[in-house]
Amino acid sequence: MCGLCGVYSTNFTAVEEDLFRDLLLINKFRGRDSTGVIKADKDSVLFTKSLKPSPLWLESAEAKFAVPSKDTILMMGHTRHATMGKVTADNAHPFEFDNVVGMHNGTITKSFKHRKGYGTDSEALYRNINDDGLATAIDLVNDYDSAYALQYVDKEKDALVFVKNSQRGLWFCHLYHGSTLVWSSDKRHLDFVVRVHGFNDADIRGFENKGPDMFTLQPHHMMELPLGAESDDYTVTDLGIKERLYYQTTTHSGWAGAWDYDADDWSTYDSRGSATKATGRWVNNGAGQTWIEYTDDDRPAEDKDTSPKPTAPVYLNYRDQMSEEQMTRLGWLNPSGSRTYRGYQGRKMTPTEANAILQQGCFNCFTSFDVDSPYDQEDIESVHWFSEDMYCCDQCFQNNADVRKEFDVEEAKVG
After folding, report:
1. Per-residue confidence at 360, pLDDT binned at 50, 70, 90?
2. What's the DSSP call for residue 391?
3. % of the chain residues with pLDDT over 70
4. Residue 22: which of 195, 163, 160, 152 has the closest Cα?
5. CATH architecture of 3-238
6. E strand intervals along 234-286
């Protein structure tokens, strides 16, 4: 998890500078391994990066870079929490190629083109965006466990570009009746900084400078703003990339079936790993394993998948796409009362009680968990409870000495 933030304005004053500095400061909670800043005007794009966390960087001589010139229209920042690649200056964001310079929040675990040639998944992704274009590069890494939010300058088009999937957040709002666009990975951070600077509900404008609400992007929709244009003069384009589906499988004797939403039919896997219809099965005839091909007439009944067709796609960690009935049927919801959770000092909690706290997020990085998601169960079991209503995730506990010190102090008080 990393932090993205920024300010774009055709009238970049000291107010915009302070907004950016405070957004970069508060994003320390999302990453402390390095800090990067991109500054641009209509004719040039500059950047800097450092292994200092953002609070130290902002107090250092390097922060002179964040002082705008009379032509500055853009400042955007990145705070890194290293997940793929070592903590080095080369692996700090942003990454620059001939046509793009940009930053990435997220993790791409799958192997993809150019991945082995770079120290991070992020740099390899930007290499592909540079070479092949955004849609092709995103489609290449798109998977059910890929996470990304991207902000970059397309130097060929002279445009500021944003795109994200469902696994990462990116929130925006307009200020000064649309002349300034501000954004951050975490909606709470954005709301806090904007209000600290004296803006109220009447000053905050939403998508296309309309309405009072902050806004975000739908997955795989690209927002493109020409450098030098007014802050609400952007276009949003659907890249036409489908969110990868997680399929619930039903295992029978030797193979499994899963609903294929693209084909609108059951797909199956035979004992040799072939996708499509099962064509046969391995049989031990006493002299070793023999592969027996099926015909339509002799397919064993137990190898015919008669499960009902699902009524809607199942999106990984995208629960608003599913009804409670669908989640229950697919095993995403535990039966009421069937599971308890251990909280502070071993206190038992119901799923409802646990979720109320877990949804507040880790007190260090703000990562939240959901007891209804099977993918969060390991993380939930490994959280470290600081008090009855506060916890930190295991990743922060293991990788952050300051967090562990906080626990030592609290244990000394309790003891």
Report:
1. confident
2. E
3. 74
4. 195
5. 4-Layer Sandwich (3.60)
6. 235-238, 249-251, 256-260, 265-269, 275-276, 280-284
Virtual CA dihedral for 87, 216, 154, 174, nearest 10 degrees?
Answer: -110
H or E stretch at 328: helix 324-329
Q: What are the boundaries of each domain within the chain?
A: 3-238, 249-309, 341-414
Report whether pLDDT(299) > 80. Answer: no
* Long-range pairs, 339-347, Cβ under 8 A, ≥24: 339/371, 341/371, 341/380, 343/385, 343/388, 344/385, 344/386, 344/387, 344/388, 344/391, 345/385, 347/388
Task: Pull the structure tokens for residue 110.
Answer: 């799958």
Please name which of 211, 199, 169 lies closest in space to residue 187, comparing C-alpha atoms.
Answer: 169
Element (H, E) at 19: helix 14-26
pTM for this prediction: 0.62
Q: Which helix (H) or strand (E) holds 189?
A: helix 187-196
Q: How many CA atoms lie within 13 A of 376 on its CB side?
A: 23
- Closest residue by Cα to residue 34 from 74, 70, 82: 82
Please, which residues have CB within 8 angstroms of residue 226's CB and are 6 or more apart in sequence? Answer: 157, 158, 159, 160, 233
How far apart are the C-alpha atoms of 123 and 104, rounded to whole Å? 9
Which pLDDT value is given to residue 270?
Answer: 37
Q: How far is Cα 141 from Cα 184, in angstroms, rounded to an integer?
A: 23
Q: What is the token pair recorded at 91?
A: 């692996």
Whose tokens are 């796409």? That residue is: 321
What one-character DSSP code corresponds to residue 50?
E
For 56-105, give the DSSP string: HHHHSGGGGGGS--TT--EEEEEEE--SSS-S-TTTSSPEE-SSEEEEEE
- Hey, which residues does 222 pair with through a beta bridge? 237
